[in-house]
Amino acid sequence: MYREKMSVCQKYYPNEPKEPVVVTDKVPGPKSVSELKKLGEVFDVRPSYFMADYENSIGNYIADVDGNLFLDLYAQISSIALGYNNPALIKAASSPEMIRSLVDRPASGNFPSAELHSQISKLLEYAPVGQDKVWSGVNGSDANELAFKAAFMYYKAKERNFSADFTEDELTSVMENKPPGAPKLAVLSFKRAFHGRLFATASVTCSKPIHKLDIPAFHWPHAEFPAYKYPLDKNEKYNRNEDIRCLENVEKIIKTWHMPVAALLIEPIQSEGGDNHASAFFLQSLRTLTLENNVVYIIDEVQTGVGATGKMWCHEHANIKPPPDLVTFSKKFQSAGYYFHDPEFIPSKPYRQFNTWCGDPSRMIIAGAIGDEITSNKLVEQCAAVGKFLFSKLEELQEMYPQYMQNLRGKNRGTFIAWDLDDEETRTQLLYKLKLNGCNVGGCAERSVRLRPSLTFDKKHADIFISALEKSLSQME
User: Of 375, 410, 434, which marks where a domain is finished?
Assistant: First the structure.
């Protein structure tokens, strides 16, 4: 007798619900409201959607304390790779190696554990094409700031012909935060970009004012990011001209900015800033520009990395040659840091790229387990196939509700899919109706909806979402 092949989701989550369950007429429900009020006495709960119940969340479903069970297409802001309460990750988290890393968290720079080599080697198994080295961090913002440090030190080392010696003037002036020891150098990023909320990352973030108000900033430039017309196949000429316009803007900034541009930082898909996709031509042309102008090329894969775009790393769709200098990561990998390949990015002296823990071995253990599960279960390939199926269904809905599904984008980019509505208020209404219809979905920028399910999201989940979306859109009429 023929038996349908068991899906990865069924293997992990045999008891996953068949459909969402919504038992309250409002979200957040009464118990969430009560619990959030109590939590609000010691924590800022103003951004909270609802009070989650992680013990009863499973697979692609997130539970709340009111007994609601939502199909989750937001996945902790795109940071859950394999769904909730994944048995393979629970096994990794229960290992003696994990217990040691948590209880005796090593100061790895000074006292590395005998297991650190294997932990780092595991991260390197899943490195982007062309990268064979890694430096570990704590989160996405940290990864980007560490990459800035690496870029600046490399840029200045190159000026010294990679001599390890510093002048007396450099050693003295740096203690007063003045050149030449503290040089005036810039990182070029892009309008609408989001790279984090720390001090240097706030200066390269340019998505919303709220992310950086009142924070002293570096005077660093923001270039134009292409604004394409969709569908792509019907607007090729316009979009190529848009790429060229933005490349000319980048080149002009590099050549005319009032201080040297040491590094260029870009997300292959600007996520928080509105799910704005960069073409392969644009990303490759930036590689050419950075090589011609002695600029370090940094790809920010914090949100786009680890499989969700139908490649392990989103920029691999562009086949960038030679490969980027640095690739930062976090979110779905649970660990963080940057990959690189040129040994000259390792500082000339110890303690220059350094902190107490030099990353977190416990997160490296989880990252390694995530990578193993993605590879052994072909989850990148599954994400590409499910994304293709989901996108085709969304195209059908777009024909029915064009006023609520503008600029549908993400074709052939796995489940990294988004679209626009007329304004923020209408977008907020749709996201709320989706919750009442059993789906937890996130927005980005002022009027975009973005999909960020886990890699175990399959066609049955896509069908559930499409039904909930169609119902929600009909309720918008």
Answer: 375
Residue 387 token pair:
């994304």
How far is the C-alpha of 122 from the C-alpha of 335, rounded, in Å?
12
Q: Are residues 236 and 327 in the same domain?
A: yes
Same domain for 153 and 300, yes or no, is: yes
DSSP structural state of residue 315: G
**Which pLDDT score, from 0 to 100, does residue 431 have?**
98
Per-residue pLDDT at 432: 98
Separation of alpha carbons 355 and 329, rounded Å: 18
Q: Given strand 439-440, what is the order of strands in its sheet?
A: 52-58, 61-64, 69-72, 439-440
Q: Are residues 369 and 448 in the same domain?
A: no
Taking the C-alpha atoms of residue 106 and residue 100, their distance in angstroms, rounded to an integer, is 9
Per-residue model confidence (pLDDT) at position 93:
97
Answer whether 0.85 is exceeded by the pTM.
yes
Rounded Cα–Cα distance for residues 250 and 86 (Å): 43
> Rounded to an integer, what distance in angstroms lies between the CA atom of residue 446 and that of residue 422?
10
Tell me the CA distances in angstroms from 400 to 393, 394, 404, one per residue in order. 11, 10, 9
pLDDT digits (tens, 9 = 90+) for 78-102: 999 999 999 999 999 999 999 999 9
Q: Which residues belong to the active site? A: 194, 300, 331, 356
Structural domain count, the chain:
2
Pick from 375, 404, 433: which residue ends a domain? 375
Contacts of 427 (CB under 8 A, 6+ apart): 420, 421, 443, 446, 447, 448, 449
- d(CA 459, CA 472) in angstroms, rounded, equals 20
Question: What are the beta bridge partners of residue 189?
Answer: 222
pLDDT for 174: 97
pLDDT tens, 180-226? 999 999 999 999 999 999 999 999 999 999 999 999 999 999 999 99
- Residue 117 and residue 72 share a domain: no
Residues of the chain with pLDDT under 50: 1-4
Residue 24 lies in a domain: yes
- Looking at the fold, whether 198 and 294 belong to one and the same domain comes out as yes
Residue 85 falls within a domain, yes or no?
A: no
**Residues 65, 183 within the same domain:** no
89 falls within a domain: no
Q: Residue 427: give the domain boundaries.
A: 8-78+378-476
Q: What is the CATH number of the domain that holds 322?
A: 3.40.640.10
Distance CA 230, CA 331 (A): 28
Exposure on the CB side of residue 389, measured as CA atoms within 13 A: 16
